Amino acid sequence: xxxxxxxxxxxxxxxxxxxNEYLDVNTDPNNPSDASIDLMLPGAxxxxxxxxxxxxxxxxxxxxxxxxxxxxxxQYEDYDEYNVPTDKFDGHWQEAYAGGLNDLEIIRDKALQSxxxxxxxxATLMQAYAFQMLADLYNEIxxxxxLQGSDNYNPKFDEGKDIYPALLARIDEAVALVNSGGIxxxxxxxxxxxxGDIDEWIRFANTLKLKMYLRxxxxxxxxxxxxxxxxTEDNFxxxxxxxxxxxxxxxxxxxxxxxxxxxxxxxxxxxxxxLLQMLLDVGDNRIDGIYDPGSGxxxxxxxGDFANRDIPNGExxxxxxxxxxxxxxxxxxxxxxxxxxxxxxxxxxxxxxxAYEAGIERSFAMHGASGAAALYGVSGAYEYVPTxxxxxxxxxxxxxxxxxxxxxxxxxxxxxxxxTQYPPFQAAADQGTAGDIGxxxxxxxxxxxxxxxxxxxxxxxxxxxxxxxxxxxxxxAIGVKVWWDQK
Length: 487
Fold this sequence. Notes:
- The chain has helices at 2-16, 37-53, 55-63, 77-81, 90-114, 117-138, 160-181, 198-215, 224-233, 255-263, 273-282, 287-290, 332-346, 352-366, 372-376, 390-405, 410-420, 461-466; strands at 67-69, 140-142, 157-159, 241-243, 269-271, 291-292, 318-319, 327-330.
- By secondary structure, it is mainly alpha-helical.
- The N and C termini lie far apart (46 Å).
């Protein structure tokens, strides 16, 4: 495990400082194909943790308006400006493809040959999660021809709408192998996420599928029958799917803490008024779990208002993320909100209220906060009152999901806000002013046209330069919707 943490720390430095020396996305890193799968799995899981728990998560925090740039620093002004350079995430792309995805593919190949279906399931699910997240973030990514090493240095780019069905089929195939042929060698402690709990990995498979089917809710690929089959089976996660194998020493800590707090001095990310004011307004006790208060209590800046030094930096609240806090891939609270939305959309709404309230309870518990029932109870600020109108009834579900994902899964919150438009943005005519409670503000620093907000990242420069099949960069790509963003 010590060696894994050395690799983890080096990966953190690589992806967080935009180094220019990377492994090629289409080559096998360090030729690890001779390593056994029990040794490869923890490294692959660590790579996925670094990729999605680091700056991608920080970006999601800005673009979902949990964080905004401190006026006393400037590391993330480009996030608030919606003007992220096309080389900003070169290292993250490289870590995803040449690191975790590549190693997971090798594990899949080896496990399939040896009949170790448990390892095959875990690697397939982690790879499916990563491909889905990357497709949602970039819209087009190498998939069907990816990870072929020297056999193909120029893999074609597939669109997300074509990747989703292929991933769902892969998930079903991996689960079927376990159900028909057993797990083979027990992954045990080499699985540093769930300790080899294959039953829970199958629950993760079902929950991941539910998330993906709901992502397609506003498209022609929406499939009520598949969603209802999952709801009927009701075999979803009972544990958070998270990487929690952190320590207090340098190089062994949560990636946000390692970079933002330890290396950069905790001078950049500050609370966005969009979330903090809502929590203050309703007396939501999760505020002290999501944010550490400033010197005089909780205070925040309007999104992108970093040029205005009206509030001293020390008075601003900041994200509360500690050195040993887990990196989450999926949470039980999220599961409850997925089920609540699915019940409203495809099952007439029966049971949605209970799932909604369970999601809030779980979210409060994650922060060690009390008072959930008072807020979702009768006449409470979060009371769920079904109307029979699908869009009206999912708004409180998605708003609570937005809050529950803060700090833990910021990028997921960004995707879900774009998909459903909840919480809503202020009217375009109000751009340049603070939003109302429960409403997002167009960043004061935005370079996008009025009424435009971030939707995706441009394909990183390194891939465009090296892969002849990469799509050309387009102007203001950040404001261009991905395939499922159709509401």
